[in-house]
């Protein structure tokens, strides 16, 4: 999947202005934000993560990979419009 279009753009950039200086923070990238949201949804679903049934838990690295996959898929679809 190609996510090169805007995956590394800032999702929520912000600028802080103080008395003598202005600083800019890029915040999370869109890919990071979408992956975090996907991971939150996956963890909220007991099919993927049930702390009461440790033998049914998905490995953390596999969960992170799945979340990134969903993030990349969303970015690809958004770039196709």
Provide a descriptive summary of the structure in words.
By secondary structure, the chain is mainly alpha-helical. The chain has a domain at 29-79. It is built from 2 helices and 2 strands. Strands 1-2 form a two-stranded antiparallel ribbon. The longest helix has 20 residues, at 60-79.
Short recap of the structure:
This protein has 81 residues and is mainly alpha-helical. Helix content is 43%, strand content 10%.
The helicity comes to 40-55%
On the 0 to 100 scale, the average pLDDT is: 80
Count of runs of 4 or more consecutive helical residues:
2
Strand arrangement, largest sheet? Answer: 1-2
- E-strand count: 2
Give me the strand/helix succession.
EEHH
Protein structure class: mainly alpha
Detail the poorly predicted runs.
Answer: none
Strand content: 5-15%
**How many angstroms does the end-to-end distance come to?**
15 Å
Rg on CA atoms, Å: 17 Å
Largest sheet: 2 strands, antiparallel
Shape: elongated
What is the secondary structure topology, with strand pairs?
Blueprint: E1 14-17, E2 22-25, H1 30-44, H2 60-79
Antiparallel strand pairs: 1-2
Please supply descriptive tags for the structure shown above.
about 80 residues; mainly alpha; two-stranded antiparallel sheet; 2 helices
């Amino acid at each position: 999947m190609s996510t090169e279009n805007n995956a590394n753009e800032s999702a929520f950039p912000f600028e802080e202005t103080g008395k003598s200086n202005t600083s800019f923070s890029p915040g999370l990238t869109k890919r990071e934000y979408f992956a975090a949201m996907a991971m939150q949804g996956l963890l909220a679903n007991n099919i993927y993560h049930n702390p009461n049934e440790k033998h049914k838990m998905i490995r953390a690295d596999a969960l992170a990979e799945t979340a990134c996959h969903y993030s990349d898929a969303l970015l690809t679809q958004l770039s196709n419009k």
